[in-house]
Specification:
The chain is an alpha+beta fold. The protein has four helices and four strands, in the order αββαββαα. A four-stranded antiparallel beta sheet has the order 1-2-4-3, with helices on one face. Helix 3 runs antiparallel to helix 4. The longest helix has 17 residues. It is globular and about 35 Å long. It starts with a helix and ends with a helix. About 30% of the residues are buried.
Amino acid sequence: RRHEVAAAALRAGFGAMGLEMFPDPAVQSNTVACVKTPKDIEPASVVARMRDQYGILIGTGLAEIRSTTLRVGTMGMTASPHYVLPTLGALELALRDLGAKCEPGAGVAAAQVVFADAT
């Protein structure tokens, strides 16, 4: 249940940020999320910015989707508000730093609702 809630919170945060999930929602995992980056934003730049500026580690997609997606884990200890909320906050900031248009706090607020409703 914890993984399910954390994944739902992460997906809600991505949605509030205007990011599109990959792949189709019918086959999404509760242990790792894959999200498309905004047009003209390199996933590797987001990963580097989050790591270097905000101290948060995420990954790019794999193989042929490496240049268009990001991966964020929600398994083990990362399946909690203690990890999901700071990750979304850092992602919002990193995307803005790189020129994307996203409302500061929108993703975090959406995820907080999911966590609050799950308790």
